[in-house]
């Protein structure tokens, strides 16, 4: 089995191997983040370059063939992108933006990088600790916070764990009384990250990870509208499906076949087939 040569992870002066053309947002793994604190109404500063300067990414984006969609599987995201990123290896051509996403809310990120995604966006980002001596990540973001939902999911390749995926939801406001939004994040991390690189620009003792990979998207219903909640807490999509079911001819035929009537339906679902009955 071929073994890859060991690399000095923190040596930012080594000559990189040949890589595909990268935009300023797609710097090689040896480049520093160069991110500074900025209010929400300012552009992110990525790789030491202020986005307010004229940055032409058209050439890079046009290099993708017509009909190309960047939608890798979980194991592909971990093995071919995140793993290579943390090991300072050249990356395949991609649409992953490098930015500290916790300095912005998801709406702002989608607006800033709309040319990099239609319905979902991918980001390399560092994570900081919530407490200096702890290992919990700080989930606070501009105007809100990200809240984890459920346990981590293993990412496997050929029956081997290569990383983990965590699902999070964005809340506006301050915890624990924030307002839930439809923005979802899948956060990927490798299962055996290398030591933190203290030579990276912007490094502090609050740094938890140099890089994780995040996929962000806005959850919508089948009609293409963002899911909201009705007053009784029922998801709008569920209510629409129920309303359509109540008045359909197929439903009437089904009830007749099963020997059921309107009263049986009402007992089962708490509603009448005819709303005015």
Automatic annotation (TrEMBL):
Domain of life per record: Eukaryota
Q: What is a biological process (GO) this protein takes part in?
A: regulation of DNA-templated transcription
Protein name per Swiss-Prot or TrEMBL: NAC domain-containing protein
Question: According to its UniProt record, what is one Pfam family this protein matches?
Answer: NAM
Organism field: Gossypium mustelinum
Q: Where is the composition biased (Basic and acidic residues)?
A: 1-10
The GO terms describing molecular function are: DNA binding
| Entry-linked InterPro entries | NAC-dom, NAC_dom_sf
* Key words of the record: DNA-binding, Nucleus, Transcription, Transcription regulation
NAC domain location is 64-219
Region annotation (Disordered) ranges:
1-31, 227-246
Ranges of Low complexity composition bias in the record: 22-31
């Amino acid at each position: 089995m071929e073994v890859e040569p060991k690399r000095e992870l923190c040596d930012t002066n080594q000559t990189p191997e040949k890589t595909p053309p990268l935009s300023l947002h797609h710097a090689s793994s040896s480049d520093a983040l160069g991110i500074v604190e900025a209010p929400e109404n300012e552009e992110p500063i990525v790789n030491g370059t202020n986005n307010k300067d004229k940055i032409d990414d058209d050439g890079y984006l046009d290099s993708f063939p017509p009909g190309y969609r960047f939608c890798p599987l979980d194991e592909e995201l971990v093995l071919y992108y995140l793993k290579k990123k943390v090991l300072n290896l050249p990356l395949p051509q991609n649409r992953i933006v490098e930015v500290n996403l916790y300095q912005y809310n998801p709406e702002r990120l989608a607006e800033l990088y709309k040319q990099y995604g239609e319905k979902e966006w991918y980001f390399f980002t560092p994570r900081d600790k919530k407490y200096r001596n702890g290992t919990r990540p700080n989930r606070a973001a501009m105007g809100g916070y990200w809240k984890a939902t459920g346990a981590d999911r293993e990412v496997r390749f050929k029956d081997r764990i290569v990383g983990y995926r965590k699902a999070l939801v964005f809340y506006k406001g301050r915890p624990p009384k924030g307002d839930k939004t439809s923005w979802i994040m899948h956060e990927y991390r490798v299962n055996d990250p290398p030591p933190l690189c203290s030579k990276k620009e912007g490094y502090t003792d609050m740094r938890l990870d140099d890089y994780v990979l995040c996929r962000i998207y806005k959850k919508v219903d089948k009609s293409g509208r963002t899911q909201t909640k009705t007053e009784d807490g029922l998801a709008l999509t569920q209510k629409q499906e129920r309303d359509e079911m109540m008045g359909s001819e197929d439903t009437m035929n089904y009830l007749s076949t099963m020997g059921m009537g309107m009263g049986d339906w009402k007992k089962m679902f708490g509603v009448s087939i005819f709303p005015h009955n």
